[in-house]
Amino acid sequence: MIEHCKRGNQLAQSMLFNKHYHRMYNLSMRILSDHHDVEDVLVVSFTRVFSNIRRFEYRGESSLEKWIKTIVINEAIRFCKANNKIRYDEELPEYYPDAPYNTDLSVIDAEHVYSIIEAMPAGYRMVFNLFAIEGYSHKEISELLGITENTSKSQLRKARMHIIERLEKTSHYGTP
């Protein structure tokens, strides 16, 4: 399929797009949190994929997906920067939960956690997703986003605090 895409075969390109679209959509949605922004980013990302596929070197089964994922992440970050959608909160407030957090994960609804993450400020959400979901290191995140490693660590801590706080509010008051 890759060789056919390199030769400009539209059927192969369509197959490649269909195979990776859903995963790349979800990845972009975790970073951008807006369907219209995600669609814009995916159009540009797959345009870059097909215009640069001649340079792609196959290095095993997951190498293509990793290459596409890198393009999508970089394009999502570029989009956020170009549209001033990222703000990093430099001040780190102290956080003292009202009560010890319930660590029984069986009572936590995954969809609720996802909605909390989706509604987080962009800086928190982006760093959290890159670190906790995509497995990037703070050094890699700092290079991708043009921030210091300490800012990356701070944003991750704030994101975690944000999630815990929202989960506690839900368990105390029954509303997100």
What do these coordinates show?
By secondary structure, this protein is an all-alpha fold. It has 2 domains: 2-82, Orthogonal Bundle (Rna Polymerase Sigma Factor, Chain: A), CATH 1.10.1740.10; 105-173, Arc Repressor Mutant, subunit A, CATH 1.10.10.10. 69% of the residues lie in helices and 0% in strands. It contains 8 helices and no strands. It has helices at 2-6, 10-32, 35-52, 63-82, 110-119, 122-133, 138-145, 149-173. The longest helix is centred in the C-terminal third of the chain and has 25 residues, at 149-173.
Provide a concise account of the structure shown:
Helix content is 69%, strand content 0%. It has 176 residues and is an all-alpha fold.
The percent range for strand residues is: under 5%
**Uncertain spans:** 92-101
Which sequence of SSEs, written as H and E, runs from N to C? HHHHHHHH
The geometry reads as elongated
- Briefly note the structural class of the backbone: mainly alpha
Helical content (DSSP H or I, runs of 4+)? 55-70%
- Count the beta strands: 0
Query: What is the residue-mean pLDDT, rounded to a whole number?
Result: 85
SS element count, helices:
8
The CATH topology of the largest domain corresponds to Rna Polymerase Sigma Factor, Chain: A
Radius of gyration, in Å, reads: 19 Å
Number of domains: 2
Q: Which helices and strands occur, and which strands form pairs?
A:
Elements (H helix, E strand, L loop, with lengths): L1 H5 L3 H23 L2 H18 L10 H20 L27 H10 L2 H12 L4 H8 L3 H25 L3
Helix pairs in contact: 2-3, 2-4, 3-4, 6-8, 7-8
